[in-house]
Specification:
The protein is of the alpha+beta class. The longest helix has 31 residues, at 125-155. The chain has helices at residues 25-36, 125-155, and strands at 11-21, 50-52, 59-65, 68-79, 83-88, 96-107, 110-121. The protein has a seven-stranded antiparallel beta sheet, covered by helices on one side. Helix 1 (25-36) crosses helix 2. The termini are far apart. The model has no long low-confidence stretch (mean pLDDT 93). The protein is 28% helix and 40% strand.
């Protein structure tokens, strides 16, 4: 049986966000890697088991156990502690591709973290609307982790 349907038009999105974090570039980069891997959680606090293989070509994926899961992206570029780029569908299980760049710049004892997310494909309205909330949550968690680490290192 052959069925026909009308697909939504190709959409694109472009998000750029920049924030200064009160921690060294090394601590912020560690916090980015942690947030993309074992510390990932949903905005409501529920666990979201992600793994990141931090090398060129490494996978970033949701690990559901028993060799099941969802490939989100591959590491395109990694230059610790200043740059991480990921390329893949991310949270979109339909024809779409994303490029995400984390660029870190040292500013004395602080770090500017800039995120750029560009995507194109058959992106649903829900994803176009919800992606900003997801990045807001991600930035909050990275900042909290990096500033916590900075506070712990100052105590030593």
């Amino acid at each position: 049986m052959i069925t026909h349907s009308v697909e939504p038009a190709i959409q694109s999105l472009a998000i750029t966000r920049s924030e200064e974090i009160a921690a060294t570039i090394e601590l912020v980069f560690e916090s980015v890697l942690e947030q993309l891997g074992p510390a990932t959680e949903m905005p409501d606090g529920s666990p979201f088991p992600m793994k990141l293989e931090p090398w060129p070509g490494g996978r970033w994926y949701r690990d559901l156990g028993n060799n099941t899961g969802h490939l989100w992206a591959h590491v395109q570029v990694i230059k610790p502690p200043a740059l991480l780029e990921l390329c893949g569908p991310l949270f979109m299980s339909y024809p779409a591709v994303s490029h995400v760049q984390y660029r870190l710049t040292k500013n004395g004892d602080k770090t500017t973290l800039q995120l750029t997310h560009k995507a194109m494909g058959l992106i649903t309205p829900e994803h176009l609307k919800g992606v900003q909330m997801g990045w807001d949550h991600e930035f909050k968690k990275i900042r909290e982790a990096a500033e916590r680490r900075a506070g712990e290192s100052r105590k030593r």
